[in-house]
Each structure stands twice: as C-alpha cells, then as structure tokens.
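Whiteboard transcription, Tuesday session. T.W. wrote the structure tokens on the left side:
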C-alpha cells in the first residue's frame, strides 16, 4: 500500500456569519452540519492499543451540494490504518454546509484534522477545520483557507503519469489572494513545464481566506495531490 495512503474525514462545525474580506467579496467557509450527520458525531473510536494521541490529516472537496468528495487522509502515527479508516468510513454519511462567495455556493478544497486521544480509560475525538499548518501562530481555533477557483490537471503535465505525491503550497492573504507559492514533488521527477503549469494555477487561484477570532487573516495553505495513470481532475 502506498506510503501516502490518503482517505477522508471532516470539518469541525464553525459558527460564523458571512464576513467581508473587502467591499467586493463576501465569504463563508464550508463546514460540517450539526447533529447526527456531523463528522464529529459519526466517527467512532477504533479498538486499538493507544496511550496518547494519533493525528489524522485530511483533504478533499466540499461540494456546492454539501457532500464530501475525493477525500483522502494520512497519518504517520497510524501504520495499521485503524484510525485513518475510522475517519474514511464516514465520508459518504457526513454532510456539510457549502462554502459561499457573494452568496453563491461554491465547491472548495476542504482540509481538516482529526485527533484521537486516549489516556487510561478516557477517550476523545476532536475535529479541527484546518491542516494544522498555522497552529504555532493562530492556535487550534481557526478555519483554514479554502480554494474555490477551478484547478484542473495542468495540460503541461499530460505526460506525467507516474504515481507521485505533489504538494501545492502558498501563503494566502486576508483577501484570498496567494503569494510565495510553490509546487513540490515527492519523487523529484516533475518536469519544469509541469511545475510551471501548477504554479500558474496557484498564481491565478482564489481562496476563501483563513478565519481567526472572527477576522480574515493571512495563513499558510498546503494541499496534497496524487498523480497516477488516471490523472486527477477537479470536477465542477
């Protein structure tokens, strides 16, 4: 099984009204619904020998219809995949409130983290609406940036069919505009033209900015994508 096994999970319910990043755009983030369809309520603690915590980091798409699609998770602390599978089993069951831009529902890149903790007989599961990349600066209580611009597989990467983990990285400012973006390949086999295609998507992309203490803030955004003989394309 591939080292970077990815699966899926969900986002912590984050209450908040529509906030304006500037006079032109109004944003709300994708988030899990409350109640029995929330990821928080659906995940069950696996039967596993644990004394401490396991962190499962996930990414996928929150659709404009409130479903979780193409979601994947990974955890270096979970070699038997028990905790990762505990999250992935809930993909189809969970529901989300869609993201909006100027009142229009949008499909967005959707990132979240699930932390399983066990101390003695005490077990807990916490779902956070981000991938932990900004915890040192913002703490745990923030919502990560969510990309809503379309980003198909770059035409310049048509011949790039080897299995690989590609990481898109950017700093997204409080207006949802990226800067200092980069594209990384786990195998280091990506051509310059292919890398340039990904960089163009990042440069022209638009995000719902990260949210912290009721304000939009600048934050690091990182998004894994898997290449294979069946190229990934975002459907919208």
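and on the right, the sequence the group agreed on:
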């Amino acid at each position: 099984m591939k080292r970077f096994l990815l699966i899926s999970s969900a986002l912590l319910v984050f209450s908040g009204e529509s906030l304006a990043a500037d006079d032109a755009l109004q944003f709300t983030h994708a988030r899990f619904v409350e109640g029995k369809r929330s990821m928080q309520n659906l995940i069950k603690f696996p039967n596993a020998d644990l004394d401490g915590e396991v962190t499962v980091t996930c990414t996928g798409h929150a659709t404009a219809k409130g479903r979780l699609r193409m979601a994947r998770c990974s955890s270096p602390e979970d070699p038997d995949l028990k905790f990762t599978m505990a999250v992935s089993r809930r993909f189809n069951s969970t529901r989300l409130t869609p993201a909006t831009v100027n009142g229009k529902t949008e499909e967005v890149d959707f990132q979240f983290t699930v932390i399983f903790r066990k101390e003695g007989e005490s077990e807990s599961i916490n779902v956070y609406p981000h991938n932990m990349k900004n915890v040192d600066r913002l703490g745990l209580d923030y919502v990560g940036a969510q990309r809503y611009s379309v980003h198909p597989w770059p035409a310049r990467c048509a011949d790039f069919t080897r299995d690989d983990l590609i990481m898109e990285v950017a700093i997204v400012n409080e207006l949802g505009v990226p800067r200092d973006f980069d594209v990384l390949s786990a195998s280091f086999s990506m051509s310059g033209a292919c890398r340039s295609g990904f960089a163009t998507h990042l440069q022209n992309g638009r995000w719902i900015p990260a949210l912290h203490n009721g304000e939009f803030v600048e934050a690091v955004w990182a998004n894994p994508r898997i290449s294979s003989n069946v190229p990934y394309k975002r459907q919208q």
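Someone added at the bottom: The two ends are 30 Å apart (CA to CA).
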